[in-house]
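Troubleshooting: if your tokenizer reports a length mismatch, compare your output against this known-good record of 263 residues.
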Amino acid sequence: MYFENNLGKVYYEVYGPDNAPALIFSHGINMNHETFKGQVEGLQDKYRVIIWDMPYHGKSSPIDNNLPFSETTADFISQLLDELEIEKAVLAGLSLGSYVTQIAAHKYPEKIMGTIHIGGGPLHPPVSPLLKIGNPFIGLFINLYPKNRIFKAFASHRTLKPETRAYVERIAAENGKKVMAHLTQELMRDMVRGLPAHTPEPKLLCHGDHEISFVQKQMKRWHNETPESRFKIIEDAHHIANQENPEKTNEVIRDFLGEILDQ
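Known-good structure output:
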């Protein structure tokens, strides 16, 4: 199915009972809705599971490159909730999708029951504006990197298992280097823009046990600074923990949802 507004058109799929609590899963850079097929299979019996292609990805259209990606994508989430007549939802984000989820929770707190972050990091406090100095060079580096090697390197950096690596390499190649370069720069701009405070909703913070140390430290700090959060490590998984160990990820998601929805 498609949802269209004045900024573009996005593709989404909905599973599970219409009257069940709703979950919206947002993927990372150069991925698509397929990232969360394991969550559809494991959660649709009890929850209304929505997966989608964020702008620039999969079957969704690009948006104006001058627009802030994560903020605009958060607006799409809010409008999609309205389109589906969902008053409140739990938002889940992987990597860049975690940034989108935080911004949506900041802009539309009245629509949020809780958030789930997989391999993400806090947008509060913002990082030093000096990070912007290196931003143009990152885009240049990605654009100059040999096309026949960059998607394999991109996938290897984020995955532990061959099937996940093959998926990421395939989808990254379909989305292309321009998307990778632009959204990597947008991710860094998100870190500089930041948020004025941590959002107050209940949070599940989790990452794979093979996640890079920077992300592990960021998520641990985030948990220490937000008493409303739960923190879990997903065994036998790297950055895309939900895909590499869907059973464990679904277990911790179910436990978290059971806690916050029964309150």
